[in-house]
Amino acid sequence: MTFKVKDYYFKKAKQDNFLARSIYKLEEIDQKYKILQLGDQVIDLGYFPGSWIQYTCQKIGPEGLVVGCDIKEVNRKLMHIKNVKVFEKDVFDIKDLAELEVQKQFDVMLSDMAPNTTGIKSVDQDRSLNLVEMVFHHAPQFLRPGGNLVIKVFDSNKAQQYLKDQKKLFDEFSFLKPKSTRSVSKEFFVIGKGFKA
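Predicted structure:
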């Protein structure tokens, strides 16, 4: 199945000078759930190309910090932004926050990570769930008590079962499929507020 890639949100992102159309997913989530606050320290897992970082660095202001981590080569377009640090690292290999040049846990964890897709639905769902499980597994290391989490999930029965078990880790736990998500996409986002570390 081919997408009409150059859809409304693709064009809007170009006009607004954002690096990808996914900016509008985070914007909608943040407007609805108030995830990001001025002065927050935020980690963006699998940030590349960086539209979520562009949005986040404006929302948290100059006193905040957003750290992007991806296995892809650092996007140099982000390196001149004062309250942004980007790293070419596998976030799941990080043993100490000092490797990300921070001292304290993050206020917010963002993950728009998706696996390299095969087109085989069950394989892609399992690979996505594997990433989701890794994020939840590492949350106690990265996320401060009371912190917020946004994570992308490919929908499946296994994912729904797994998420049911994670619900207890947060004061509030919501699901959203943003308007800018392509209609054929099976992805949705989990929004966790008030992490019970």
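Summary: The helical segments are 8-15, 23-33, 51-60, 121-142, 157-166.
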